Amino acid sequence: MTDERLDDARLSQALKRRHMTMIALGGVIGAGLFVGSGVVIRSAGPATAVSFLLTGFLVVLVIRMLAEMATALPAAGSFYEYARLALGDLAGFITGWMYWYFWVGVVAFEAIAGADLIRFWLPQFPQWLLALGLLLIMTGANLRSVRAYGEFEFWLASIKVGAIIVFLVVGALFVAGLWFGTGPHLANLTAHGGFAPRGWLPVFTGAVAATGFYFGAEIVTVASAESAEPAAAVARATNSVIWRVLIFYIGSIVLVVAIVPWNSPAITTPYVSALAAIGLPGAAHVMNAVILTAVLSALNSGLYVSSRMLLSLTRRGDAPQFLARVNARGTPSRAILAGTVVGFAAVMMSYISPNAVFPFLVKSNGTVALFVYLLIALSELRLRRRLERDSPERLVIRMWLFPWLTIVAIAAMLGILAAMAFIPDQRTPLITGLASLAIAVAFFWLRNTLARRRLRAAPVQP
Prior knowledge:
Helix content is 75%, strand content 0%. With 462 residues, the chain is mainly alpha-helical.
């Protein structure tokens, strides 16, 4: 058995049914929900729930497309390969490297976010030292074995899921008047200027901002495709993402704005403020711990996914071959370390020059995620027709209402990108994202140019 197959085999054993179900749950609950949602609420008011519903619908469609491709072509390994198969080498190259870039960026700013959260309790420690410590811990777990990723993510996701379920139950009881304390509660949804106090444009703007909060839910479809029963695992993961988007995101957002008025200064920390209003003792400490768990989960996933994508890139010659080496446990150690090194370099850049490189990474990541989702949808549109013609028996899971919902998703993503050009606070993310895309295209052209030169310089065989 080759090292690559050994790695896949161990992944199949590591990601058992309980792990896949919990990763599917936890993948939808990121730090963006706990922290970033406050930004959207301040802009769109209670109608933020509609913003998250719109974006959630789009993400659900993309996850369903991935589920279709992952079960029909499980050997391909990732949507990097799907883009290559459907749209050609350039699309594959761009998809792979931009996805790697996204998750390496996640590794960097989640390490920084985690360090800041720890400094809530230990303010005497420098940020860069705590960030390095978190990176080393998660790198060690990922290097140890593929199973370690599944175990870490299972427990981290369990904490996140448990926390959000407790919030939903306690929040619902409080809003219904069955918890200690009285207040306007549901009246807050319309009492401060109406449901959409600033009109509907901020609601659609909020949908643009919320796109990045959902990114990461797609991990489970790729991992599920490498499990012992890919069709069943992907089907479970897809179904879990759908209703959890509705309950965890939209449900908790509705409760937050029902408990804390959208125009209150406290909405900058939405979940902490909601727990404090409910009267939960130590709300700040509890929520800080939950958000730290979400950050560690994202950091863990970032190292895992970026290393697997880098490994896929080496198999096609799109990345240096020395990164393809796997250790005795079957894990791509060099690819994992590459993500760690680049992530920590970005951490140091944020420390040395906070107004230069690191802000570029942060601002471009949401747009990069949108580009990747767009390429996934375009790939599914092309591959589905090919599979229906050549191998219809492979289509165990099918995209709903094909091709119409796929076309709707593509149009929506193109509409979001176009809208970003007209939204002042989204122009910089759009420009930095386009710059990242241009850099990827330039590297593809450079790689092909060097390959052609080497081919011309090679001696002709007699």
